[in-house]
User: Fold these one by one.
Assistant:
Number 1:
Amino acid sequence: MTTATAAALLEGGRPSDIPVADDYPSEFSRGVAEQVANGSDLGPYVIYELKDAIVVGEIGGAFTEPGTVEIGYAVVRSRRGQGSCSN
């Protein structure tokens, strides 16, 4: 997530530096944006949908104790349940 995206979300707006889904931001986006200043190697990162070339959510992680990472993600409602895995 760029600092410009984070700033827009923290101001209650939508980012203008990246294309996003119509219902972005998610209910968790503002909280995720607050983590951008921490500069963690674990994110937050945006989730980008290749098919429509838009951001549909965020993913990131945090160390909860030495050697243990907790991963969290959020996807906007309109794009949930449509994923697939490919190798």
Number 2:
Amino acid sequence: MNKKNKSDVRGFIYSTDPNFNFEPAQDEILETLLPAKQPLRIKLDSKHRAGKAVTLITGFIGTADDVEKLGKQLKNFCGTGGSVKDAKIIVQGDQRDKVLQWLLKNGYSATKKI
């Protein structure tokens, strides 16, 4: 592909409108809900992980810093590794019971899926 046809950083290649002005989408600033109002779901997942099971916590509504903090607390409580991606907390292994216990103890309302 030659330089003339390459898209810019925002994905636009060419516009025929002489008055076109790109306006980037504004990201919504999410406020973190109270723990009792968080609709967290806990499930066991092994898809795309070479058959290894992980506990997946989804449904967190809030800032990226708060979900990182919650993920770190859960991983420390379970004594395992994991990560946080796209507002989903991933804890290595089948830790559903421990995670549910910790969330309920700390005021979160969580539902456990199989």
Number 3:
Amino acid sequence: MPVFVYLAGPLFSFAERDFNTRLALALGEAGYEVLLPQERCKDLGDRLRDIYYQCVADLEKSDVAVAVFDGPDVDSGTAFEVGYACAQKKPVIGLRTDARGCQGDGPNAMLRFSVRYIDGRDMGFTDMVSAVLKEIGRLLTEGAGQYAG
């Protein structure tokens, strides 16, 4: 039975979308079925209501979520996806690769302490993927409700 990973993150620049795609491919190569909104919703165009319902359905289908916390503040859509996943008792991994300051030394407390947080700012891509895969394995073994790190 496949394990579904929902990958949340900002997707407003080519660089953001490219990073999301690279991370999704690496997780897929490790055997996970990745639900990537930027791919799963691209045929929906500007139909925002349909995009919302597709993302919610994918979150509900997922076994674990990975959220990219990059930017000067965490993307509002990503913050919603994290909150929704937590409300559904889904384990979530928060990943920050952005060296810019973000409310001190990371995302705000509500996001930072509701997820397993990986500070990937000093990691190369391969090491960061390894850290994410390791956390996915831990979370799936421990079960929901044990996310905070």
